[in-house]
Amino acid sequence: MELIRSRDWYTTADGADRGYIRPHLLKELWFHTGTACNLSCDFCLEGSSPGDKRLELVKLEDVTPYIDQAVELGVEQFSFTGGEPFLAKDLVKILQQAAEYAPCLVLTNGTDAVQKRLHQLVPLLKSRYPVSFRISIDSHIEAEHDAGRGEGMFDLALQGMKALYDMGFHVSIARHMADGEDTAAVEQQYRAILENYGIPGDTKFVAFPDFLPPGSHGHGPDITTNCMTQFHTEETRNSFMCSFSKMLVKQRGQMRVYACTLVDDDPEYDMGNDLRASLEQQVSMKHHRCFSCFKYGASCSET
């Protein structure tokens, strides 16, 4: 299928050449397990909620061919996001298969959906490669976290994180990042809370700015080719997610390759259905979330 893109893909609003990233390898492959979630958060960058079907729940048969192709391409990690991945019935089977070939990372809110399936995770402890979990704890202040996710979710998420840690899994935290924050002070507050729950204080954090819900127009200046050469080097351009990773989503019953984890609300970032071919396509810095990567070096990866 020929992929047709608009003028905006190539040119900024004032007519300048738009910045782009040229992929150079497949280091990490993400699978979007579907936008269904057991929670409904108004800030969710995927617009996820109970029963949401913008992106469909994946099955083992959907992902198997892409696991195989990714291995052929030298993938170093498989990562899984949602929605809430534990609402995909085949998730554990998928992890069992993927973890035979590379380390796996699962992003989860740590609450009921995962806690009800903890017993199913035991076999994963014997996988050839480790399976790790990143739990979303938006703020170290309980009331702030619960304001977005629901009353009691702060404590429940930390209970889920502790349960995964006690089972022997590596755990990390995804948190919100505020402009101008004192990162060291914020993370010290987190560490004190983690230690109260019996979780090591040196747990890794991944901080994200506000990415806005799907379909938002966002903010920030256009990124030109001049911006990408003036403010970035070849080395830093290669650290952009779209340079070394891709994401698979299921739409209308078909698996599609998207440029990265942050752009699945824009069909112009649909790279087709073949991983190898997707690596040959330049990725435009057109999406409003691209500016977050440009400004902060934001990455969903832990590789």
In short:
The chain is of the alpha/beta class and 303 residues long. It has eleven helices and ten strands.
Explained architecture:
29% of the residues lie in helices and 16% in strands. It has eleven helices and ten strands. Helix 1 runs parallel beside helix 2. The longest helix has 15 residues, at 153-167. The radius of gyration is 19 Å and the shape is globular. The chain starts with 19 loop residues before the first strand and ends in a 7-residue tail after the last helix. The mean pLDDT is 92.
- Cα distance spanning the termini: 32 Å
- Fraction in helix: 25-40%
Strand count: 10
> Which segments are poorly predicted (pLDDT under 50) over 5 or more consecutive residues?
none
Shape: globular
Rg, rounded, reads: 19 Å
Q: Kindly name the structural category.
A: alpha/beta
Into which percentage range does the β-strand content fall?
A: 15-25%
Average of per-residue pLDDT values = 92
Query: What's the tally of helices?
Result: 11
Largest sheet: 8 strands, mixed
Give me the side-by-side strand order of the main sheet: 7-6-5-4-3-2-8-9
Order of helices and strands: EEHEHEHEHHEHEHHHEEHEH
